[in-house]
Amino acid sequence: MDTSDSHGIMADEITPLVPAKRSKKPKTPLPKLQIGILVTLQLAEPIASTSIFPYINQLIRELGITGGDDAAVGYYAGLIESLFFVAQALTVLRWARLSDRIGRKPVLVMGLSGICISMLCFGLSTTFWSLVASRCLCGFLNGNVVVMKTMMGELTDSTNMAQGLALIPIVWCIGGFLGPLMGGTLARPQDHWPALFSGPFWRDYPYFLPCAVAAGLLFLALIMMTLFLEETLSTKRRPNFTSTTISVSSSPDRESLAQKPVANMSLRSLFTPSVVIPIANYTMLSLLDISCKVLLPLFFSTPTYLGGLGFDPALFFARIVDWIGPKRLFCISVSCYAPLVAMFPMMSWILHARGEVDHAITFALLCQLVVLVTWDMAYGTIFMFITASAPTNSVLGAINGLGQTSAAVARAIGPAVATSLFAASKEHNLLGGNAVFVILIMLGGGFRWLASQLPDEVQDRDE
């Protein structure tokens, strides 16, 4: 037997699954006030993009677009849900590049103001095309998510980056929980609280209240940001402001880029493997995640005869990264997608077998929630890879803009494709009505391969 092969086999057998602890630099304390303000602002996008999910299907039915065909609701709901990300994909890179020139705070002011206005317009919409216009406006004016990721990168260094970036998916989960909860609770208030909301205005605009509350919260966040959040762009911040700014790592393709003046650095020069592979993983993660998220309310509200459930529409992370490693954690999270999607047809089969929604369905929903939490950990790790891939801080906004643009494209495609596949699967009984889940599971398998292409370790930006 070849000696080199035997040594390779021996190395594989003795290599621990959890990497041995290495001597590490002491962690830099996070600037708690600034990051606290930042994560509060970061609730804006998930609230704006998910608060319509609970009632969008009912709103489509009330507009009469489908002519009473429940199976076709998914087509129009997916279109409305996708438009936000279509518009964002067209403009987010321009917002990111603008923030590299004029500063982060001015772009945040414009972004939060735009979301407030568009949410109010959505609540006052009474036709399909007015809904389309307001969602497009929301996406066009919303560049704050990429700027916030850039600011988080500028407020952290390689010792505390996992802690700081871990807050992004946590806040997204909180916003993704509060948005639908608020939308479902406050929609059609004249039906729930007739004594308070009995006027003709609420009959004409039954979905204005959740939009107005979301706009009010965003306005309060805008005031807080204006008063207390410090500028993090080095050329625009005040002289007395100090932060733990990320330094430049020294990999070969990054060194050559870092030598170039910022004014002469084109976007094309940023398309290196160390940048493209994390962004490709982020794109796939966003596509599959949004596809699953939009199927949840659609699956729950779809009548049982069509294969749904017929429901009424209504710091831990950083320790795991240190223990398992970012790439292993990302691959584990990605591997959860297949069982996550497979639970949809399983719950439908359980419902038909037992004839009612009982404790078995409840247990399956709880299991799906646990798997979903593990899946969501992938966001924290991929943000680490994207942030570490920046050749220099002066293009950190641009790289985050590239990542957010690709993610916005995926999130634009995901709802339309997923809900349309769901509708087509049920309407034509493809694979017993489960074709959408089979396709998503196959995509999840391809995503697992893409995750394996990431570097084994996040590059130390302080070396």
Index terms:
463 residues; disordered N terminus; 20 helices; mainly alpha; globular; 70% helix; single chain
Kindly provide the radius of gyration, computed on alpha-carbon positions and rounded to a whole number of angstroms.
23 Å
Structural class designation: mainly alpha
Largest sheet: none
Helix content: 55-70%
Identify low-pLDDT runs. 1-12, 241-264
Figure out the total of helices: 20
Order of helices and strands: HHHHHHHHHHHHHHHHHHHH
Q: Residue-averaged pLDDT, rounded?
A: 76
Q: Based on Cα principal axes, name the global outline.
A: globular
Strand content: under 5%
Q: What's the total number of strands?
A: 0
Report on this structure.
This protein has 463 residues and is mainly alpha-helical. Helices cover 70% and strands 0% of the residues. The protein has helices at residues 3-14, 32-41, 44-50, 53-63, 73-102, 104-123, 128-140, 144-154, 161-186, 189-192, 200-204, 208-228, 252-258, 273-301, 316-324, 326-335, 337-354, 359-388, 396-428, 435-451. Helix 5 runs antiparallel to helix 6 (104-123) and helix 15 (316-324) crosses helix 16 (326-335). The longest helix is centred in the C-terminal third of the chain and has 33 residues, at 396-428.
